[in-house]
Amino acid sequence: MTESLLHTLRVPDAFGGADHCVQVHDAGSEQFAARLRKMARERRKWARKGNIACYRIYDGDLPDFACAIDAYVRLDGQPAHAQLSALDMEYLSANTFLHIAEYQAPGSIDPAKAQARFADVLALAPVCAGVPEDHVFAKVRRKEKGGSQYAENRKPFVFRTQEDGLWFEVDMNGYLDTGLFLDHRVTRQLVGRLSVGKRVLNLFSYTGSATVHAAAGGAAATVTVDLSQTYLDWARRNMAYNGFVGANHAFQRGDTMAWLARAAEAGLQFDLMFVDPPTFSNSKAMGKVTWDVQRDHAELLRRCRAVLAPGGMVVFSCNLRSFKLDGEALSSCGYTWKDITPSTIPHDFERNPKIHCCFALQ
């Protein structure tokens, strides 16, 4: 850090205590602090009322402070279906953790200035949100070749939280993401509602959060598929935390495209599928094959069609902001579809409605 400290900000305490003095590098940090204090207060109130334990506070609201800040409440030791509104503010403050992801600054921004601003974010965030300083975990998202994202590996910091009264394990530090994609909170609720009595398939399952919602919604059986054994084991733990174990809940490792081909050959059929592929992947486990959601989604959904039971539905989502559904290709293999994106964007992501797109295909 080459810049000298500009000044000291006096920041009001999040819960009415004595003001905090925070040293910052960038004069614009005062505006950031005011914005973050306001959003943290509003979101905390909204989350308590809605019993939401994990939520977004800030999402690049100010262009000069390009980062996303999410809050996660640790609920280890609390009973199932714990109501946040019943927990006092002292408990919530002591058990809330911030996950801060910095977005790589454009080339036109002086790297030293971007570094100074992010240092200010890290200094101000715990004060503005009213959490302990050591409850802040920072990640840097850097674009790599092909559109993938990178963050260095770190020591895990794992605890359990809840969503809709269901238990989920999150890791605040070990990976780029925590294990729970918060922008899909409403989408998972939709999967749960649609799962009653259904055979549910979760492809590109990550940590199996959608499978948990499906099982909780009354699915007759679930199959969870991912290329990573690490994530499959995580998914199995998430299911077990909620009591969903046994032969009706299968976990299978494999490349999704190859897995679907084998499933079709075996005559497997599913009533509901949740398909949320990455934007891009060149995983070593895939060999020389790469994955590009814009290029490959039509073939993926064609293979899904081969194992979709009559009257079944595919809930398809992705996070590529420029994504265009190949309607002609989907029509040719017998799909009708509806863009349900607006109804799947949670309140805390409304500022960025392009966070994902979502379609219901039948």
Task: Give a structural overview.
- With 362 residues, this protein is an alpha/beta fold.
- The chain contains nine helices and 18 strands.
- A seven-stranded mixed beta sheet has the order 12-11-10-13-16-18-17, with helices on both faces.
- Helix 4 runs parallel beside helix 5.
- The radius of gyration is 21 Å and the shape is globular.
- About 2% of the residues have low confidence.
Radius of gyration equals 21 Å
What would the average pLDDT be, to the nearest integer?
Answer: 92
Q: Name the overall outline.
A: globular
Residue fraction in strands: 25-35%
| Amino- and carboxy-terminal Cα gap | 55 Å
* Approximate helicity band: 25-40%
Side by side, the strands of the main sheet go 12-11-10-13-16-18-17
Structural class designation: alpha/beta
Low-confidence stretches: 144-151
H and E order: EEHEEHEHEEEEHEHEHEHEEEHEHEE
Count every helix, treating DSSP H or I runs of 4 or more residues as helices. Answer: 9
Largest sheet: 7 strands, mixed
How many beta-strand elements? 18
